[in-house]
């Protein structure tokens, strides 16, 4: 019996995902299932007892047998299978794509309003309500083609072309976990906080563009003038004795 157990293949390490202080490891059996497991968890009867960061190895134990698994030594024995649109659509559903996309678009709209304040601010004397309506109309034009239903179909096509069937399954397994759902639910917050950090820096950069453009225009005008003067024929000097 022990000989049979000794011949049993250990899981392969397909990837590692770090979410905050938590580390999750994608374990897979050759030709079989894949799951994301944390230290202390189990997969196919194997206990993930330790992650040795210094050596970048996992310690797996089953029936008293200890096995070290490294990502660099992991092999995918079965040929990769091309993903289908259905595979990608299933993943996007787990990702709550429509809900997440709508929230992200709302964040983008707020960012666009901030970026266009300079333009609308120059519309002195404009009625406040009409200006707000104009801004709303402007946003509708910008985001008209970016509705969740259309974008989901586009994303499904992209995902099916970029990822393999097993990769989409691995991602789906992760998004089915509590950590995966937290990443989805909190992505708009991350996006909002990211924009809070980026916008002041972007605006500071944009404020420098005006003087840079003016200096560039001045240099170009000077070069054009110098070139014109160099190309102009010298003034004729009257011959000696001529009046």
Properties at a glance:
single chain, 243 residues, alpha+beta, SH3 type barrels, four-stranded antiparallel sheet, three-stranded antiparallel sheet, 56% helix
Quick structural overview:
This protein has 243 residues and is of the alpha+beta class. The protein is 56% helix and 16% strand.
Architecture overview:
The protein folds into two domains: 8-73, Roll (SH3 type barrels), CATH 2.30.30; 85-204, no CATH class. It contains eight helices and seven strands. Residues 1-6 and 72-78 have low confidence and may be disordered. It has 243 residues and is an alpha+beta fold. The chain is elongated, with a radius of gyration of 31 Å. Helix 2 crosses helix 6 (148-162), helix 2 (85-94) packs parallel to helix 7 (165-175) and helix 3 runs parallel beside helix 8.
Q: What fraction of residues sit in β-strands?
A: 15-25%
Q: Briefly note the structural class of the backbone.
A: alpha+beta
Which outline best applies? elongated
The count of strands amounts to 7
Average pLDDT rating: 79
Rg: 31 Å
What is the element layout, followed by pairings?
Blueprint: H1 2-7, E1 12-19, E2 22-28, E3 34-37, E4 42-43, E5 46-52, E6 57-62, E7 65-70, H2 85-94, H3 97-115, H4 117-121, H5 128-143, H6 148-162, H7 165-175, H8 178-231
Antiparallel strand pairs: 1-2, 2-3, 4-5, 5-6, 6-7
């Amino acid at each position: 019996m022990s000989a049979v157990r000794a011949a049993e293949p250990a899981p392969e390490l397909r990837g590692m995902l770090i979410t905050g202080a938590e580390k999750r490891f994608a374990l897979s059996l050759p030709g079989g299932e894949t799951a994301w497991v944390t230290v202390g968890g189990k997969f196919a009867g194997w206990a993930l007892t330790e992650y040795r960061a210094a050596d970048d190895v996992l310690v797996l134990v089953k029936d008293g047998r200890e096995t070290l698994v490294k990502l660099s030594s992991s092999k995918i024995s079965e040929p990769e299978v091309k993903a289908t649109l259905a595979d990608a659509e299933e993943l996007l559903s787990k990702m709550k794509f429509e809900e997440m996309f709508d929230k992200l678009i709302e964040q983008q709209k707020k960012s666009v309003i901030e970026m266009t304040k300079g333009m609308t601010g120059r519309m002195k004397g404009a009625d406040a309500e009409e200006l707000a309506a104009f801004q709303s109309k402007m946003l509708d034009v910008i985001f008209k083609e970016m509705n969740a239903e259309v974008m989901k179909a586009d994303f499904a096509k992209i995902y099916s072309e970029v990822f393999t069937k097993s990769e989409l399954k691995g991602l789906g397994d992760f998004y089915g976990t509590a950590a995966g759902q937290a990443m989805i639910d909190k992505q708009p917050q991350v996006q909002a906080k990211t924009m809070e950090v980026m916008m002041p820096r972007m605006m500071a950069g944009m404020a420098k563009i005006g003087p840079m453009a003016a200096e560039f225009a001045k240099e170009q005008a000077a070069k054009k003038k110098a070139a014109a003067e160099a190309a102009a024929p010298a003034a004729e000097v009257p011959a000696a004795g001529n009046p």
